């Protein structure tokens, strides 16, 4: 029965794009802005796990600096992100997704689920962990330039 529950739990997380870091143990530190009797309002990966999970391919000096600067994020940001209403011009903005192939936060299946939920025009792949701006900055910059060069169709902007 436990295996069935874990399987359902993991597939839910995959489809929602929510990071499941259970393989690393108790890694989250939560904030309870609405009180301890309410669900957490923010979360952060504990400092002792940040290098292993977020920055394992990054230079040590970059991961050290990043660990000093990282702050808690909203607990439900990934699960509750919705863009409804076609009249808002949302589809006028060209979306790209950069898939990080060695990511320990968002596994490949989770990244693919995110792409299916809100398909971008283009998917780029980078051999990086969750933080390509540290582990592969030149390659990331190249991808961002390629994203800018995509034909933008109806996007409003300078001609």
UniProtKB/TrEMBL annotation:
GO BP, sorted A to Z: jasmonic acid metabolic process; salicylic acid metabolic process
InterPro entries, A to Z: AB_hydrolase_fold, MES/HNL
GO molecular function, one term: methyl jasmonate esterase activity
Coiled-coil region: none
Superkingdom, taxonomy of origin: Eukaryota
PANTHER family in the cross-refs: METHYLESTERASE 17, METHYLESTERASE FAMILY MEMBER
Name the record gives this protein: Methylesterase 17
């Amino acid at each position: 029965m436990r295996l069935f529950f874990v399987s359902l739990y993991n597939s839910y997380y995959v489809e929602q794009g929510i990071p499941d870091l259970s393989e690393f143990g108790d890694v989250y530190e939560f904030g309870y802005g609405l009180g301890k009797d309410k669900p957490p309002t923010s979360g952060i990966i504990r400092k002792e796990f940040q290098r292993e999970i977020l920055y394992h391919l990054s230079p040590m000096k970059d991961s050290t600096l990043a660990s000093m600067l990282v702050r808690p994020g909203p607990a439900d940001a990934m699960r509750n992100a919705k863009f409804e209403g076609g009249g808002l011009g949302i589809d006028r903005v060209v979306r790209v997704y950069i898939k990080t192939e060695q990511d320990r936060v968002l596994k490949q299946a989770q990244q693919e689920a995110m792409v299916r939920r809100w398909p971008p025009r283009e998917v780029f792949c980078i051999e990086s962990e969750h933080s390509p701006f540290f582990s592969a900055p030149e390659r990331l910059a190249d991808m961002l330039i390629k994203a800018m060069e995509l034909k933008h169709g109806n996007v409003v902007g300078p001609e």
